[in-house]
Amino acid sequence: MMQLFYVTVNVCLTSNLCVTPLGLEGDVDLQFLLVGGKLMKIKSSSWKKDRMYKLHDDNATIWHESHRIFKRKQTFSIDDVDSVRKGRQSEGLQKHTEAHVEDRCFSIFFKGRRRNLDLVATSVEEARQWVNGLEKIISNMKKLNRQQTSEHWIFNCMRKADKNKDNMMTLKELKHFLRQINIEVDETYAKLLFTKCDTSNSGTLEGSEIKHFYDLLTHREEIDVIYEKHAATGGQMSAQDLLNFLLNEQREVATLEDALRLIEKYELDDSAKHMNHMTKDGFLMYLQQEEGSIFNPAHKKVFQDMSQPINHYFISSSHNTYLMEDQLKGPSSTEAYIKALMKSCRCVELDCWDGAHGEPVIYHGHTLTSKVLFKDVIKAIKEYAFKTSEYPVILSLENHCTLEQQKLMAKHMISILGSALLTSPLEDQMPTAFPSPQELKGRFIIKGKRLNKLDAVFSNTSPGVEDDCVSEEDEAAETNNSKTDTNEQKSKIKLAKQLSDLVIYCKSVHFSGFEHAKDNQAFYEMSSFKESKAVNLAETAEQFLQGFRIYPAGSRTTSSNYNPVPLWNAGCQIVALNFQTPSKEMDLNQGRFRSNGLSGYILKPEFQRYAGSEFNPMTLTKGPWIKHKAFHIMVISAQQLPKLNKDKPKSIVDPLVKVEIYGVPADTCSKETRSIENNGFNPMWNETFQFDIQVPELAMLRFLVEDYDATSQNDLIGHYCLPLTSLQNGYRHVPLLTKRGDVIPSAGLFVHLMLLDAK
């Protein structure tokens, strides 16, 4: 089992974890990090302090010196690091350091809301070694499969439990270790387990005894049952046995060659592999890889047709993208754009206002939110737009600037974005439909006001002096307006021709009703709605909400979110959410866009793409959208759920699992298991649920693992969401994410699923 393990673990000699990342034995950069050195920590222009930093010998934790009275030593886990960026790439380093130290600077960015760490090395070479070393370790950790991360986590907990570092484990240390891994056992069971492993009767566990303890601890009874049922060849699984399992239990389209490939890939026992057999260890290894995941591996790549008009796709979209926190006084930052783009967001919002010194800024107007330079935002977007997805990014402009600063906005976008900025239609004649995501790969599309129709591009006509005013877009003002929307209520601003000419396929227009839009609106013209108006139209309109952008109500000052599902059901392609806020709604958004290679574009079902469709999500009638499915799911077990209260060693979770379906109202449903008391390490439920699904193409499956509390609201342990059409049948492992959407490395659910045609 240790053959593919991420680290070299000498369990026969020590209970300590001697770790060297795979492939980095003797690596110069790794050795440099283990020795460590002085780095200048930058907090402000006046706070620049030299601090000692080094990699802990577990190769997974950074220790750094602290001069705080009550915190002399501080550490952070490399698991918590999102990225390492060389140079002055953070706002702090750009603001508080000089350009000549560029090559000595680097920043460590963390997952979640933790502030990034800005550092300056003593030399260019040391900066290079820090960045290279950290990136190598992070890259190695990302390559770990589920079994490897599990072992890595367990052995690290063993290290911490060995309080006196004598490479042995006493009964007291064993009980401490069990609490660390989130399992509470009574005194009798702990003694029984300890005595069973203490074959030398020494009163401590060491060497092979610790290995025996580990094997007992990680033994999975449910895997035994499944394996023994299907291992019909001398107690092992032959290639034919494995094929039968793939066909009958996993419901896969598979051949004998596929079974042999899995044996070759995952079987660890050479003698079994030589006979084309799979042992129980190999079987567990297979189940913990992507082939055994609930998420269809084929959907990790772009698999949908990307050659259809762009309005045929749901587009991952962000509201007030610049905000890191709330809508009233929180910080604005280029980092917010980077985080959204790295999550495959393809439509970002820029609220543009006149700034000091003639430079336009972005912030939430008429509030105390901080300001960020427009040109810095464009630079960040240029740098990070296509790192996760190569498909087009829409820049949704809310323009409040005067003419001179509008001209500067246009100049910045043209100079910074270069040829990637779409400045004219792709065709050499007036288009009649949107281009496709495939045709727009790597391009930036500006959404905003335009002074004239798009055909002016081909007729070389310019707007007259009287035509240079457009209605000002102001989401907050529109949302807080108690009167009905009319053109007269909207204030007018002058629009610079240079900025107007950059708006090609996404011209913002006021919505005056479906009939007016049908008779007067060009295909490239689109309207924005606040959520309440959109939900009302979604529930009452007789047609799809094609060509609309939806945004949260201005009353959501805490940056909370609305439910995007009813709007997707109604065909809305741009449903903008507050990406900075962890919430069920963001879980659903990330679940919706998890498939199709994290492209940020999901092809709508065919019945939502064309005018005249009679599909109505509120009152289902017969049609091609009805594909009645019976969905059976058994929640079997969970593994290594995280402790929620790490400050209280004896605090153990009482987990339960909620299984939720989101889709059309007829399909939306939630069911939950009982709670398991005091066991977050290996709780077992074996509870079965059934759901009736009418419109599977719009349905999503969400797992929610919570710590049950009889007296207050349950606490979130982890969650996972995916489109129902992206799941795999059979026995599957489900990864779990933190509230901010980061993978919990060692945790997961084990389930059995069957999505079948209903009889």
Automatic annotation (TrEMBL):
E.C. no: 3.1.4.11
Residue ranges of the region described as Disordered: 465-489
Annotated compartments: Cytoplasm; Membrane
Protein residues bound to Ca(2+) 5: D707, Y708, D709
Positions of the C2 domain: 612-738
GO MF, one example: calcium ion binding
Catalytic-site annotation from UniProt: H319, H364
Boundaries of every PH domain copy: 32-139
The reaction(s) this protein catalyses: a 1,2-diacyl-sn-glycero-3-phospho-(1D-myo-inositol-4,5-bisphosphate) + H2O = 1D-myo-inositol 1,4,5-trisphosphate + a 1,2-diacyl-sn-glycerol + H(+)
Highest taxon above the source species: Eukaryota
GO terms (BP aspect): intracellular signal transduction; lipid catabolic process
CDD domains from the UniProt entry: C2_PLC_like, EFh_PI-PLCdelta1, PH_PLC_delta, PI-PLCc_delta
Keyword flag Membrane: yes
SMART domains reported in the protein's UniProt record: C2, EFh, PH, PLCXc, PLCYc
Signal peptide (residue range): none
Residues binding substrate: K447, K449, S528, R549
Ranges where the PI-PLC Y-box domain occurs: 499-609
Topology with respect to the bilayer: Peripheral membrane protein
PANTHER family listed in its UniProt record: 1-PHOSPHATIDYLINOSITOL 4,5-BISPHOSPHATE PHOSPHODIESTERASE DELTA-1, PHOSPHOINOSITIDE-SPECIFIC PHOSPHOLIPASE C FAMILY PROTEIN
Official protein name in the record: Phosphoinositide phospholipase C
Species, as recorded: Oncorhynchus mykiss
